[in-house]
Amino acid sequence: MAELHERVRTRLRERLLSHGASRDLEDPALFADVERIFQAAIATGDTQTLILPELLGDRETWRLHTAMRFQSHRSSALASVIIFVKQRVMMPLLRWLFEYSRDNFERQRRVNDVLFACVQELAIENARLRRDLRALSAPGARSATTAHDR
Q1: What is the spatial distance between Cα 98 and Cα 104, in angstroms, rounded to a whole number?
Q2: For a surface tag, which of 20, 38, 59, 130 has the fewest beta carbons within 10 Å of its beta carbon?
Q3: Distance between CA atoms of 21 and 51, rounded to whole angstroms?
Q4: Among residues of the chain, what percentage have pLDDT more than 70?
């Protein structure tokens, strides 16, 4: 199974490179690391495990709304007539567009969730690398490294 996965990964990498992907992906190990990050992001099925949506604030301010609402700011008598026309005349005319858009919005929501997970994985990796770099740059780490190199 691992051999099959490796062949699929190699073909994918070669196809991406032939279409102009970054030359950095020529390194199979680097490509495998990138794929691992994306696979981890795709496997994240629950947006409750992501930091970015929490930092964006109230979900109502940034989530797409796919439900149609009929409202009017006019007086109640005129509002009733306008809402009736919207529901009985305009709604049947726009139903197909709404259904088409809703499916696209759901696909976009899934892509957004995966991208949020990717950004989180990359942020974690970046923070880990920065922490390791600071540890190596610390005065005590230099002397230990220098002593070890001798």
Answers
A1: 10
A2: 20
A3: 29
A4: 83
Cα–Cα distance between 93 and 86 in angstroms, integer? Answer: 10
- Note whether residue 16 is domain-resident: no
Q: Helices then strands (H, E): number in the chain? A: 6, 0
Place of tokens 């994985």: 121
Residues for the chain: how many in total?
150
pLDDT at 150: 44
The total of structural domains in the chain comes to: 1
Considering the domain boundaries, does residue 86 fall inside one?
Answer: yes
pTM assigned to the model: 0.54
- In a domain, residue 135? The reply is yes
Which residues, in sequence order, are CB contacts of 25 under 8 Å at separation 6+? 13, 16, 17, 31, 34
> Is 126 part of any domain?
yes
